Amino acid sequence: MTARRATALMACMLLALMTSPAQAQLTVLDQAQDAPAVAAEPAAPPPPCGNQPINIARMSWPSAELLAEIHARILRAEYGCDARVIPGDLSATGSSMGSTGQPAVAPEMWATRIAEVWNAGVEAQQVRQAAPSFADGQLEGWFIPGFVAEARPELTTAAGLAAALPAIQPQGKVQFISCPADWACSLINRNLIRAHGLEELVEIVEPANRFEMDTLIAGAVSRKEPVLFYYWRPNAILAQFDFRPLDMGAYDDEAAKCLAQLVCEAPRPSAFASEPVVVALSEWVFAEAPLIASYFQRASVPLAEMDRLLAQLNEPGATVEGVADRFVAEKRDVWGAWVGTGVP
Question: Could you give phi then psi for residue 114, rounded to 5 degrees?
């Protein structure tokens, strides 16, 4: 091999060595660019109960106590929520929900009784209504015993009393048990008696207090005496005995204003004013726990069912917690619809 050929060969080898790394680097870059993209991990769905405890206000009256305990049990069992029952007060709870978003739930909020507080919370978009606390019924009205309703099946309305009462009580007047004289309902009832033309057909009795009111009603029913009475719902006595509500007719705002006055010159019939009682939810529940918000949007308790729960609470040795346990264990046909698994 000549010196010239040897030199040329060495030059080719050096050139090959110099170019090989560049080609290798380029190949690596091409492979990286052509490789399929790695799919990103899908975002985990939000927890069904949100990221904070579901605090439920337990107000101080029996129906609200029962609702708080019932909802807490269902949320724990069906959704795995950290549901906590905490003491509540109508005004303080409404104010706290409207300013801090806690508690998360007030199962029985009488919104019109704290209208200023409630409206402020709604306008601040901190709280809103989920569903009526109670379903299918007027909260105030007139009632007759079941045995009277069975004997006079045509008597279904307050407007029908004028025709039916003379046949029910041919001699004398039918007792109308109203509420205590210092309650607003006593004045409304007196004016309604006049509006329906019943002054000569009923004897108005105004008990001294709630206890006497219940005693008078229970005594008349036990003696099978025809009786007409005012009451409100939910209430235990309406489940302890067989009573039928009378249809009070449509609500008339102008008529209702007159019925509530001491001097109402020309009273006209009207149903009692409807007072909204709602399940109140803090706004964050709708945003962070929509599944729980949907539950509460279905969670209206039939009035007759709450009447029965209150009657159970009056049984010897009964507790709010025990009655709530019994409801959850025995009444899935009622609450199953709230979680979407109701029995048809």
Answer: -130, 50
Instruction: Return phi, psi of residue 85, to 5°.
Output: -90, 125
Do 248 and 291 fall within a single domain?
no
Closest alpha carbon to 295 in 233, 230, 342: 342
Q: Each residue of 81-138: pLDDT tens digit?
A: 999 999 999 999 999 999 999 999 999 999 999 999 999 999 999 999 999 999 977 8
* Angle formed by the axes of helices 62-74 and 303-313, nearest 10°: 100
Does residue 31 form part of some domain? no
Tell me the per-residue pLDDT of 258-315, one tens digit each, with 9 for 90 and over. 999 999 999 999 999 988 899 999 999 999 999 999 999 999 999 999 999 999 999 9
Instruction: Give dist(CA 114, CA 112) in Å, integer.
Output: 5
pLDDT for 225-251, tens place per residue? Answer: 999 999 999 999 888 889 999 999 999
Residue 86, helix vs strand vs coil:
strand
Instruction: Supply the pTM of this predicted model.
Output: 0.80
Q: What pLDDT, on the 0 to 100 scale, is given for residue 321?
A: 98
Domain boundary among 203, 229, 259: 259
122 in the same domain as 74? yes
- 241 and 320 belong to one structural domain: no
For residue 171, being part of any structural domain is answered with yes
Q: What's the domain range around 327? A: 54-134+276-339
149 within domain boundaries? yes
Distance CA 234, CA 140 (A): 9
Give the integer Cα–Cα distance in Å for 18 and 117: 82
Residue 237 backbone dihedrals phi, psi, to 5 degrees: -65, -25
CATH number, residue 198: 3.40.190.100
